[in-house]
UniProtKB/TrEMBL annotation:
It comes from Actinidia chinensis var. chinensis (Chinese soft-hair kiwi). SUPFAM superfamilies: L domain-like (SSF52058), Protein kinase-like (PK-like) (SSF56112). Residues 288-301 have a biased composition (Basic and acidic residues). GO terms for cellular component: membrane. This is non-specific serine/threonine protein kinase. Residues 1-23 form the signal peptide. GO terms for molecular function: ATP binding; protein serine/threonine kinase activity.
């Protein structure tokens, strides 16, 4: 445990070195004034033995190093106070602290302060972190206690003796990420939180009641436990108030009955018609009519084009691109029992179990008229010639002017996306760390192979995303939908394909050899955090802002162990390696294409990763890590002070 924590701290430390190195910062002087200010601040404290080395004759900071206990320095200026677990009491002189222009985070955790909450809003719009937990602060917090604190992201008030309502101004903080309010005596209803960046708001063990606002419905249940009467997601639904029921209920029931009757009647009529049609059709039907109906149930298959295809289907031959594979034709696929797998951005895909045994996937592409027939055939043969353990092989295809079918094997275990985001059953275990590592290594190898095979293509994959990473029964990844850029219609590609969501395309209309690397980076971050990259949901270029927010949030601000997917098991002794992968993900997601790694570097770094941290990692980093011992101090606070 300790070692893990150390490694993490070490990483935080290394990472903030990078942050700091990147920052252009003018060293603030005025050391002396700041020293006076701090001594003034100290005057109002009691039991301050811990601060005995606060002495004007010692300078406060040299560079990033602090010489006064509990001070945090950055580039020669005081940016944080971390007075934790020092048995301090007395008055917190906020007024004095306002004279420290670079102050970004203050922590008085686990001391013996009491009385009302200090008037922190006087510190204004620059403060990022406030840590007051584990004291004896008490009384109501005024509603406007946090007004104007537009940079505040982390507020920890837990385990005090606060009473009354949760202050409205706290809920209105625009970029609040974490708030610990648990273990107090807050009562009344929970206000709606406005921040779009909320990560964890813990309200457990208070006296709160009423509905949980929508903004908090994604928090874990444990954030609400130990209250009197909270209801609504993620807890049990609220019971609607009894008074209002009777009249409305009668109206609703009546309306429902009428609607149901209408549906039944309509259904009977339609059914009558359909049977008639069927009977008419059957006279001229081919023997396989019944199996065809299976397909036709799905709307997609009722388009005129489809009908035509299947009428002539006896003569329709599939083009096989691999010699070793068993032959079948479209007719066999139609005869097989089919199941719609889903409809992606290109068209629907179907799973068909052939009578002879194998299960195939048929994927329909409507927007593949970029190249003519011969060229298409030639390119498909080329794809068929690819062979790599991490590529889903193309088996056959079918060419028709308006649409193409690509036929591949069916992969049992579904896609990485479905494992990360689409769990049917909440008890189903998430992918563990060794599995995730194996997956990303496989993805990297498959991608490297594509780069080697298509040296002249800008986007050898072009559509790398978690739903295109399929998993076989051993959770080995198989890349799907690769190398299709040359045959997809340009407009459609730019609207839907993953590569075109990259910053270089959304901003500068260009893609480069490093664009697939960006997709790889997103995949890494998605896999480690369990978060879905929301921009993929949007079509066309509009997704950019969302992506920026997401990458920023994950990479720049959640740069700690907390960022990892809670469902990821088997992380013991691997946290250093996980952080390395996170860093790799970030380097792949670098917006500046010049600075972004190219694929060979990314693959090399990924290949170097191990399941467990090696001894050498923690022994050499541990000593530096020591100084960052509390959660009040993360690089987050550092990076804020650099940026703010
Ligand atoms: C500060 O340090 C000097 C010299 O080390 C010492 O003489 C002085 O008493 C100290 N002042 C305080 C307030 O501790
Ligand atoms: C703070 O630390 C970082 C890393 O050592 C360094 O790059 C930066 O220059 C330091 N700032 C000062 C003023 O020493
Ligand atoms: C909660 O999570 C779901 C799915 O992850 C998301 O669609 C929804 O927007 C989230 N709600 C809030 C209030 O964050
Ligand atoms: C919230 O706080 C309680 C202690 O009051 C703790 O048991 C629980 O794990 C916390 N939940 C979250 C999501 O932090």
């Amino acid at each position: 445990m300790q070692i893990m924590a150390r490694t993490r701290r070490t990483w935080n430390w290394l990472i903030l070195l990078v942050h700091v190195a990147l920052a252009c910062f003018v060293v603030a002087s005025g050391d002396l004034e700041e020293a006076e200010t701090l001594l003034k601040f100290k005057e109002s404290l009691s039991d301050d033995i811990a601060l005995s080395n606060w002495n004007e004759s010692i300078s406060l900071c040299t560079g990033n190093e602090s010489h006064w206990k509990g001070l945090m320095c950055l580039n020669g200026a005081v940016f944080g106070l971390q007075l934790e677990g020092m048995g301090l009491r007395g008055m917190i002189n906020i007024e004095a602290l306002t004279k420290l222009p670079n102050l970004r985070t203050i922590s008085f955790m686990n001391n013996a302060f009491d009385g009302p909450m200090p008037q922190v809003k006087e510190l204004g719009g620059a403060l990022r972190g406030l840590f007051l937990s584990g004291n004896k602060f008490s009384g109501n917090i005024p509603d406007d206690a946090f007004t104007g604190m537009k940079s505040l992201r982390r507020v920890y008030l837990e385990n005090n003796e606060f009473t009354g309502k949760i202050p409205k101004s706290l809920a209105k903080l625009p970029i609040l990420a974490d708030a610990g309010l648990h273990g107090n005596q807050f009562d009344g209803e929970i206000p709606d939180f406005v921040s779009k960046q909320l990560r964890n708001v813990n309200l457990s063990n208070n006296r709160l009641q009423g509905p949980i606002p929508d903004s908090l419905q994604n928090m874990s249940q444990s954030s609400f436990s130990g209250n009197n009467g909270l209801c609504g997601k993620p807890l049990d639904p609220c019971k609607s108030k009894k008074k209002a029921i009777p009249k409305i209920a009668i109206i609703i029931v009546a309306a429902a009955v009428v609607a149901l009757a209408a549906i039944i009647i309509a259904w009977c009529i339609l059914r009558g018609r359909r049977t008639k049609k069927k009977q008419l059709g059957q006279s001229s039907a081919k023997p396989n009519k019944k199996e065809l109906a299976n397909y036709k149930q799905h709307k997609e298959y009722q388009s005129p084009g489809r009908q035509e295809t299947y009428k002539k289907s006896e003569s329709v031959k599939l083009d096989f691109v691999r010699n070793e594979r068993e032959r079948f034709d479209l007719q066999d696929l139609l005869r097989a029992s089919a199941e719609v797998l889903g409809s992606g951005s290109f068209g629907s895909s179907y799973k068909a179990k052939l009578l002879t045994g194998p299960t195939m996937v048929v994927k329909r592409f409507r927007n593949m008229s970029n190249v003519g027939r011969n060229e298409f055939h030639e390119y498909m043969r080329r794809l068929g010639g690819l062979s790599h353990p991490n590529l889903l092989p193309l088996v056959a295809f079918y060419y028709k002017k308006g649409e193409k079918l690509l036929i591949t094997d069916f992969v049992k275990n579904g896609s990485l996306a479905s494992h990360l985001h689409g769990k049917q059953n909440p008890n189903q275990p998430g992918l563990d760390w060794p599995t995730r590592l194996r997956i990303i290594k496989g993805v990297a190898r498959g991608l490297a192979y594509l780069y080697k095979e298509f040296p002249s293509q800008t986007l050898p994959h072009g559509h790398l995303k978690s739903s295109n990473v399929l998993l076989d029964q051993n959770f080995e990844p198989l890349l799907a939908d690769y190398a299709l850029v040359p045959v997809i219609n340009k407009e459609h590609a730019q609207q839907f394909m993953a590569a075109y969501k990259s910053p270089e395309f959304t901003q500068h209309d260009r893609t480069t050899k490093k664009t697939d690397v960006w997709s790889l980076g997103i995949l890494i971050l998605e896999m480690l955090t369990g978060k879905f990259p929301a921009n993929y949901l949007k079509q066309g270029k509009g997704g950019n802002a969302d992506l920026a927010a997401w990458v920023n949030l994950v990479v720049r601000e959640e740069w700690t162990g907390e960022v990892f997917d809670k469902d990821m098991k088997g992380t013991k002794n691997g946290e250093g390696e996980m952080l390395k992968l996170l860093k790799i993900g970030m380097c792949c997601c670098e917006w500046n294409v010049e600075r972004r790694w190219d694929l060979t570097v990314a693959v090399k770094k990924i290949e170097e990763l191990k399941e467990r941290d090696s001894d050498e990692d923690y022994s050499s980093y541990a000593s530096e890590g020591e100084m960052y011992s509390s959660r009040a101090m993360t690089d987050e606070d550092f990076s804020f002070s650099v940026n703010g």
